[in-house]
Amino acid sequence: MEIHNISLENSVAHNFMAEIRDIDVQSDRLRFRKNLARLGEILAYEMSKSLDYKQTNITTPLVSMSQNVIKNQPVLISILRAGMPFFEGIQNFFDRADAGFVGGFRASDFSTSNRVELSYFAVPDLNDKIVVLADPMLASGRSIVDSIAQLIKFGSPKKIFLLVVIAAPEGIRYIEDNIQLPIELWCGALDDKLNDRSYIVPGLGDAGDLAYGPKL
Q1: Sign of CA dihedral 197, 16, 46, 136
Q2: Burial of 60 (0-12, 13-18, 19+ CB in 10 A)
């Protein structure tokens, strides 16, 4: 799996990353969601450099000219619920792309089994498509692997771009060990490890709760 870690170069993304991690800022849910969306836009822009392009003719108010545009729009897939603000940022840059959604949640015994339950799929045809799978936190990697295992029932993608805000090395290894499809990972940061509850360290906590409030 090819890995692109945008934190290795200085950019404004560092400001947004600092705010979503900072406990003194996290209490502002609107700001947290906005920063997730901003990071989605930045990662979408960086990832777009890896897509195929074609020339098309356009007419400006002055002349006709040739312009490179994306050859084939990707299909955007979000894992709910924490993925929604992040996904909206990505969608801002791929506004013509088809979209799909996967509903997933941590099982009640997650601390001991690392199980993720998938309960909802609304997905277009994925056959021979470029798929952009968005999930803010790549922790154990199980939700990603389980989601891809279900998504390929909707067609065999040409390639998968996995966009995450923060990744853990354990999750990356799990994906590499369990998925044979061509995948490129784009992340805002690659953190140190998982703790005994499978949360990323240093991480930021539970992205879904920070975006929308605690759940029962």
Answers
A1: positive
A2: exposed
Identify residue 101 by its one-letter amino acid code.
F
Ordered per-residue pLDDT tens for the chain, 216 residues = 999 999 999 999 999 999 999 999 999 999 999 999 999 999 999 999 999 999 999 999 999 999 999 999 999 999 988 889 999 999 999 999 999 999 866 555 545 555 667 778 899 999 999 999 999 999 999 989 999 999 999 999 999 999 999 999 999 999 999 999 999 999 999 999 999 988 999 999 999 999 999 877
SS3 of residue 188 by DSSP: strand
- Which domains are delineated in the chain? 2-54+68-212 (3.40.50.2020)
Residue 42 carries which side chain, given as an amino acid letter? I
Helix (H) or strand (E) holding 211: helix 207-212
CA–CA distance, 86 with 76 (Å, rounded to integer): 12
